[in-house]
Amino acid sequence: MDLVEYQGKQLFGRNDVPVPPPGAVCRTVEEVAAAAQELGPVTVVKAQVKTGGRGKAGGVKVAPTPEEAVAAAEDIFGLDIKGHTVNVIYVEPASDIAEEYYLSIMHDRVAKGYLVIASKEGGVDIEEVNRTNPDAVVKQTLLPSETVDGLPTETARDILARAAFPDEVLDQAADLLVALFGAMVAEDATLVEINPLIRSADDRVLALDSKVTLDDNAAFRHDGYEEWEVEGLEVADPLERQAKEQGIQYVKLDGEVGVLGNGAGLVMATLDVVAQAGGSAADFLDIGGGASADVMAESLSLVLSDPRVTSVFINVFGGITRGEQVAAGILEACDRLGDFPQKLVVRLDGTNAEQGRALLTEADHPSVVPAATMSEAAQRAVELARSA
Amino acid sequence: MSIFIDENTRVVVQGIGSQGTFHAKRNLDYGTKVVAGTHPKKGGTTWEELDLPVYTTVAEAVEQEGANTSLVMVPAPFTKGAILEAHEAGISTIVAITEGVPVHDMTEVYDTVVRRGGTRLLGPNCPGLISPGKANVGIIPADIPTPGRVGLVSRSGTLTYQIMHELAQAGIGISTCVGIGGDPVIGTQFLDVIQAFADDPDTDAIAFVGEIGGSEEQKAGEWIRDNIPDTPVVGYIAGYEAPAGKQMGHAGAIVKEGGPGGESAAEKKEILEGMGIAVAMNPSEAAQLMIERLEA
Fold first, then answer.
1. Are A110 and A139 found together in one domain?
2. What residues of chain A lie within 8 A of the CB of B288, using their CB?
3. Partner-chain residue, chosen from A217, A249, A272, that has the shortest CB–CB distance to B238
4. For A125-176, what is each residue's pLDDT tens digit?
5. What is the pLDDT of residues B77-95, one digit of tens each?
6. Given A193, A256, A298, A324, which residue is catalytic?
7. Which CATH number does the domain housing residue A34 bear?
8. Do A49 and A8 belong together in one domain?
9. Would you tell me which residues 69-98 of chain A have a C-beta closer than 8 angstroms to some C-beta of chain B?
10. Which residues contact A132 (CB under 8 A, 6 or more apart)?
11. What is the rounded (10 degree) CA torsion for B80, B85, B88, B91?
12. Which end of chain B is more exposed for a tag (fewer CB within 10 A), N or C?
């Protein structure tokens, strides 16, 4: 789960990472006007969306007066930033910036540890700095055995010194990095990024921005991340949100063939064969282990509620769940869902697949089209999608 | 022979709830030497469904029953503790089926158990492994594969069953099928399994099923190119159609936007083919390629 800037700052603040004084979270121009009056005269008006590049897209504006804050808010609300519509704006008192740095820690999949990245060149795209001036970017991997009691201050200081952070702020910045590492572990984040990390005119080091990604698998020890579920900040497609509530693994895609199957790998492979048959999948849906009529009916109804879906490909490999059970589950789900115009191409393989296919043939359900192989099923589903 | 598990494998099951019992019983019925279960509060009782002893700790199961392999079926919040316990008890192969383990937990577990501890850990979020005719540890349906000389390693579950099934129908058997799991941090990597297959005198060919995300397939590919260029190796990478930035079911199956590159299926295929490894566009083609290689 990604947090927006103001949420990331809240998370930083409660873990002793210095942040600017709190601003105001606004949903209307009127709220922005009131906030600018209170926090101004000079404020920064910032779009709260879960994507980068807000500044370039015109989503962040410095407002020298409350009037200009209102004008900025009028421009920013409703702005589309890489497909994310701005519903929420954060108004913050402007900070007096002397220098801008970059600091981040992310989970390092390759090294199976933590990757710290620090640069004296902040406030700009760090990938760009890495390309044009790689010497300005210091990267260090840390293993859990080196951080048993957190990130040692000496290690933090060493990383920042190598990144040429000025001596005057080195101790402060090192304390901040130690706190940032603590925040990452305590909050189960997989990414914490500060860009820019600023040195203010009065020599304080503060996180002026935040980017935080939390590990969905760790939601169980953070009350399901409910505190971060805020209206207006959702990014998922409505169908993806519904699927999440029902505990179904679903990803909305752009095509016309609805896809569901058992197992993430098999469903990914199904998308591949649909494309190879000349079609395009409308979704990725993993029904998981087993194939009860309940799960099948819920999943099918989700797939069919996408108006672009003109045919459906159900791809199930019978393992411990046997073919005839899967077939029975599909037929029962069809009966429960009643009439729907799309045809369901069903491909069953694996344990007792023949019995399952026989059951489907025998039932002769008007919506069900049995297919023998994955590629044959993909062909049929694509043809049916086209002729629908 | 086979790799990682065989007739000498003695399994203790951590997590003897309904799922653990269901799968452990299937493993036992297959002929696997499942020897005990553990439960923090049921030590000293009998595991009725399997007619086996229950111990409070893994250490007791090691001492009393000679357990050398552990099957971890506990819920995600307890998986880190269960794996660490098995490691401390001296278990040599830990198979963690559990899905949804936090990445920080696994980062710590990997460091302690695998990197510094030298214990073999499969998973988490994996289907386990089977050496047909010898042992089955985990949730792989045992009636799909027949014994044979192809080693299969995969990040996926059902997709692996699909390929095993197609090979079986063509009369091709399996030495060992290893599911390494779909999470970002897993104990045993592609390369570890492929090296073990290379050392196994009874494995003649290797099939692998990768996915989008990470770069472990490429690492394995380099080693294959440099060390076993004459061994028939075929692969398939699931997710040619997966959009960037979207997690496709498995926690590790994601092409990071603005990430390091080389994480998409098309890029992996191209890189691996550049190393002389045949990579199929779909699972049936992978099985077909393997059949052709073995006939050639």
1. yes
2. none
3. A272
4. 888 888 899 899 999 999 999 999 999 999 999 999 999 999 999 999 999 9
5. 999 999 999 999 999 999 9
6. A193
7. 3.30.1490.20
8. no
9. none
10. none
11. -100
12. C
